[in-house]
Structures are given as structure tokens and as C-alpha cells.
Design a protein that fits this description.
Its main location: cytoplasm. This protein is of the alpha+beta class. Among the domains are: 109 residues, Helix Hairpins; 113 residues, Urease metallochaperone UreE, N-terminal domain (HSP40/DNAj peptide-binding domain), CATH 2.60.260.20. It contains nine helices and 15 strands. It starts with a helix and ends with a helix. The structure holds zinc ion (ZN).
């Protein structure tokens, strides 16, 4: 069982963005590997705090986590969140500690102070049908991403000597302080371009088209974003590729309306079908479904087909398909029909006599959401 992100950072669910940041800063300082060499428990806590902060500091991810918990970040596509590596964690620090090397650490990851640069992220939009949303789908998309050109070589940056950062001595109210800044010549990677083929850009990169397969879990919603790690642009030198960020867009279905994991379908039947009973084919995800209507079915009745809705993103089963029965009253009648209905006027069987099971619309809606 994964620990609650709020508990990891020791904050309440109502914590403000500033409080979240403050709490993470405290944990990161407490568990930093430089302060706890060889302590695997501290390293574990360090990683957990970073992961919690990564989610809770992002309004999008936080909202998803608040709604779905850890399950929001599971599934094929791998929502951002779980499984951060040390590179990811340290790249977060510029934001937290206000500058590379801030906070008084000797270096990152206990190593030589060099940080692997990350390539830029790419963004694409994927449009899904209701069927694809309902069951999940693997999408193959063509992505134009920059990769290191064949034959390109990099050499150690002479400005920083390969360390990726330059140090400066500053006089402050606390005395002389040594601060580190990202090397502007190499962008922090410690490497610069040595030689490149003609068709590569100034960083030795070249655009190629690649087919990327994206596993989209069932139950995603319009506006969500999935992350495919390492399918963004390559970084020059020994950097790591950026990510491919996939924005989900969902198409409206012609007859089925989605509401959370439930689907709604409006079924229209004639007066005679309602009186005599009938069986009808209705739309469902994954094909048509035949349902039976008992003789005497009332307009407004809702039939619930369990499990015929959307497979839940949080992994707990599926929603239902709710069929709303609407009895269609004819607007025009021929002479014979008119005579029949006139004859039935006042007939005992035609008198409304609602029973408890024929709940009003409002009671049914109340039931559905309770
Ligand atoms: Zn450099």
C-alpha cells in the first residue's frame, strides 16, 4: 500500500501551495543523500517526498490525486508521478531552493555536481471515441522528435571543465558565500558539440519521424494528460530525452451520454409498445444490446444495465448503462384511432394509478446518486 502523499509531506489536505513547498523543502533537507550518506531509509524518504511534491505541486495532478488517489497515476500510459529517479528529483530543486546548488549542498546526488540535462518535452493531442475511452486503447502515433544525429560527437565543456556549473564568490550579509550557477556555455550538461554531420542542428540534433505506441487506460476524461517518458526530444551530449505529453480529447457519441463512469441512453417507444411490451435494440459501447420491456412499462422508467458503462480509471469495476424509457405520444390520429382513444377516455384501465414502484423522476434521480 502506497503512503498518502499528504502524510509523506506531513501536511493537511487543505495545505496551500506555499505550505506544500515549505513542507517539501524541509523533508528534502532532512533526507538529502549528502546529509545521510549510505542511509537507504533516508534515500527512500527523500524519493517519496520528491514524488509527493511532484504531484501535489502541480494543480492538474493534485486534482487527479485528490479524486482518484494513487490509482490516478497507474495504468499503461504512466501518468506523471510514480517512479522518479534522482535526475528528476534534482532537476526539481532549482524551483525549490532558488538556484542550482542552493541550500548549501556540496553537489547533487553526492556526486561531482554535474547534472544530466533533459531534452525538451513534446506535446500531442489524441482524440478518442467513447468506445476507446470505455475499454482503454493502444494508440500508435507518428511523432516528429529531435534525436542525436548519427556521427555527432561531443566533448567536455572547457568553460566549466565538464562540471556543468561555475562557482562564484559573493559577499552577503552572512559573509562570503560560494554559490554555484549553471554553466551558460554548455547549459549544465558539461559537454559541448565537437563535430556534427551537415544535416544536424547546432546541438547535433536532427528531426526524425518515429511511431510511438501509447497505452491509454480505460476511463480517461477529456482534458487529462498522459506522459510517455523519454519520447520527447533528445538532449545533446549525455543528457536524457524529454517526455511526450499526450493531451486527451474525447468525442461525443451520437446516442450515448457519459456522466462519470455511467452512460445514459434515451429510448423512445410507441404507446402500443409500452402497453403491450416489446424488446428493443439499444446502443452500448462495444455493440448493440437487446433489452426487454415488460407490458405496461411507464414513461420515465430507468432500466439499469450493470457494468455496461465505462471501465473505471481507478480500477474499481465499471459504471452502468442507464436506459431512460420515453413513451412517444402520437400527435396525429386517423379517424379509427381517434375513435378508439375517445372510447378509452374514462375507461378504468386508462386511469393513472401510480404505485410505489413508479417513482417520480425526482425520486429516481435521488436514488441514483445516493
Ligand atoms: Zn560548461
Amino acid at each position: 500500500m502506497k503512503e498518502d502523499y499528504y502524510e509523506v509531506l506531513g501536511i493537511s489536505k487543505s495545505a496551500s501551495a506555499a505550505e506544500i513547498k515549505k513542507a517539501y523543502r524541509k523533508k528534502a533537507l532532512q533526507y538529502h543523500p549528502d546529509k545521510n550518506p549510505g542511509d537507504s531509509e533516508a534515500e527512500e524518504m527523500f524519493k517519496k517526498s520528491a514524488e509527493a511534491y511532484e504531484v501535489l505541486s502541480d494543480p492538474d495532478k493534485k486534482a487527479r490525486y485528490d479524486q482518484f488517489g494513487h490509482r490516478a497515476f497507474e495504468g499503461g500510459g504512466g501518468f506523471g508521478g510514480g517512479g522518479m529517479n534522482m535526475d528528476d528529483i534534482f532537476s526539481q530543486f532549482g524551483d525549490i531552493f532558488g538556484g542550482f546548488g542552493g541550500g548549501g549542498f556540496s553537489g547533487f546526488g553526492g556526486g561531482g555536481g554535474q547534472r544530466r540535462t533533459k531534452g525538451s518535452n513534446l506535446r500531442i493531442r489524441v482524440t478518442l471515441s467513447l468506445e476507446e475511452v470505455a475499454n482503454g486503447v493502444e494508440k500508435k502515433v507518428k511523432v516528429r522528435r529531435k534525436v542525436q544525429a548519427e556521427g555527432v560527437t561531443y566533448k567536455t565543456c572547457s568553460t566549466c571543465g565538464g562540471r556543468g556549473q561555475v562557482t562564484k564568490i559573493q559577499n552577503t550579509i552572512l559573509g562570503r558565500m560560494q554559490t554555484a550557477a549553471v554553466c551558460s556555455a554548455c547549459g549544465g550538461s558539461g559537454q559541448i558539440l565537437d563535430s556534427k554531420p551537415n544535416d544536424a542542428d547546432a546541438q547535433g540534433l536532427k528531426v526524425t519521424e518515429e511511431t510511438v505506441s501509447i497505452n491509454i487506460p480505460a476511463g480517461v476524461e477529456d482534458g487529462m494528460q498522459l506522459k510517455v517518458p523519454n519520447k520527447g526530444n533528445d538532449a545533446p551530449g549525455n543528457g536524457v530525452p524529454g517526455d511526450l505529453l499526450v493531451a486527451i480529447e474525447t468525442q461525443e457519441h451520437s446516442t450515448l451520454k457519459r456522466e462519470g463512469d455511467n452512460l445514459h441512453y434515451d429510448l423512445y417507444v410507441s404507446i402500443s409498445e409500452a402497453v403491450l411490451g416489446t424488446s428493443k435494440e439499444i446502443d452500448a459501447v462495444g455493440g448493440k444490446v437487446r433489452i426487454k420491456l415488460e407490458p405496461g412499462i411507464q414513461s420515465g422508467k430507468i432500466l439499469r444495465l450493470r457494468g455496461k458503462g465505462i471501465t473505471s480509471l481507478n480500477g474499481y469495476g465499471s459504471g452502468d448503462l442507464l436506459v431512460h424509457v420515453n413513451v412517444w405520444t402520437p400527435k396525429e390520429l386517423n379517424k379509427e384511432q381517434r375513435e378508439f382513444f375517445e372510447k378509452m377516455n374514462g375507461n378504468d384501465n386508462f386511469e393513472p394509478r401510480p404505485e410505489k414502484s413508479d417513482k417520480s423522476f425526482f425520486e429516481k434521480v435521488k436514488d441514483m446518486f445516493s
